[in-house]
Write a structure and sequence with these properties.
3 helices, mainly alpha, 73 residues, elongated
């Protein structure tokens, strides 16, 4: 089985634009700030973990797309 997929250039370009929605990014920042202050509830800690993981995965996918296009992140 091949590890490559043929994809239109426009599709790969669009992947480089992936970001957390503004409200989710703002919430992530708020949770990180509260975490630094030691003020998170258990639910907020779970939300922080989920948003941080999603943000990291989006960054990795974006970086791979940029790499395929021969660009630097």
């Amino acid at each position: 089985m091949s590890d490559t997929v043929d994809a239109p250039l426009q599709w790969v370009e669009s992947i480089t634009l992936l970001r957390l929605p503004e409200h989710a990014d703002k919430r992530l920042q708020e949770l990180m700030d509260r975490n630094n202050e030691g003020l998170l509830s258990e639910q907020e800690r779970a939300d922080l973990k989920a948003l941080a993981e999603l943000s990291e995965q989006l960054s990795l996918v974006r970086a791979e797309a940029l790499h395929l296009l021969g660009r630097k992140p």
